[in-house]
Amino acid sequence: MSFQAFKLHNLFHTTRKPTSNLVKISPILEMARENSPYIHIERTLLIIKPDIINYADKIEELILQKGFLIIQKRRVHLTPEQASEFYAEHYGKIFYATLIAYISSGPIEVLVIARENAISILRELIGPQNAFKAKATAPESLRAIYGTDDQQNGIHASDSFTSAEKEIRFFFPDMVVAPISVRLAAKDYLVRNVNPTLLKGLTELCKQKPKDPVLWLADWLLENNPNKPHPIDMVTS
Length: 237
Prior knowledge:
This protein is α+β, with helices and mostly antiparallel strands. Strands 1, 2, 3, 4 and 5 form a 5-stranded antiparallel β-sheet that branches. It has 11 helices and 5 strands. It folds into 2 domains: 131 residues, Alpha-Beta Plaits (2-Layer Sandwich), CATH 3.30.70.141; 52 residues, cAMP-dependent Protein Kinase, Chain A (Up-down Bundle). The longest helix has 14 residues.
């Protein structure tokens, strides 16, 4: 096997070490719309609060069904001091002490999720802050389904890009939260220059059924690379 084939073989076999926070990373190009030259993928923060933590799996499934990607998540139990820091903007308000006691009463599930217009779409999905109002005006929202009252509403979500940036950094300090611009030119490039050769290789792979399919495909791609220089094109020194 040539050194180039060996490198390509390793590329196809590349894996990532699992981490407790990394859940799902999907190619952003899959979210690109055909009628838009580019889209902005926003990241936002979602917290499943202590009283409905047992419904976390169902809520995450719904989030995925609504077109969000779960980028990272973690389950933590905030101390009252940590909760006070997170909700510092509410300090001095009449509900502040109750809020801190509530959010620090048990473990919470914290998720960073992403999609186009993630912040506004998630806010609509969770419904009004007061669970009573949510039940009356948005009965299918998450707060209507899982919330109890204006305090124990079950769900927290960032209300702006500024809030999302601050809140994500609170739980995931190393994460980049700026919107991602994705141009369809990248998708077009793959369609024109990669897919035709790759599909031919995969078709031939299915016919041959080699013992090591990845190594076979790596060698086939190197051998059938349409951009491979011919001897007449090569420059010798």
